[in-house]
Specification:
3 helices; about 90 residues; Ubiquitin-like (UB roll); five-stranded mixed beta sheet
């Protein structure tokens, strides 16, 4: 599974995307694995209570996980996963 990262998350993972072989079948499992492999990623994605930070957008096949099943959203190896950090500007 290819996971695409944007903006300030790219330096943490070393590029635009990460390939996960044999990915877990939930967003939570994928994010936990990525957080273990890439230093600093956990703090960028999660609040102190373990929930996804308010302005982090995680999209599965073009749908925000907040509108599916959150961290329990199911994925398969063919799913497209995009992770966007908080963005501000004007």
């Amino acid at each position: 599974m290819q996971i695409r990262f944007y903006a300030t998350l790219r330096p943490l993972v070393g590029g635009r995307s990460v390939d996960l072989s044999d990915p877990p079948d939930t967003i939570k499992g994928i994010l936990e694995r990525l957080a273990c492999e890439y230093e600093g990623l956990h703090d960028q994605l999660f609040d102190e209570d373990g929930t996804v930070r308010r302005f982090v957008a995680i999209m599965v096949d073009g749908r925000d996980i907040r509108h599916i099943d959150g961290l329990d959203s199911r994925v398969n190896p063919e799913s497209e996963l995009d992770i966007f950090p908080p963005v501000a500007g004007g």
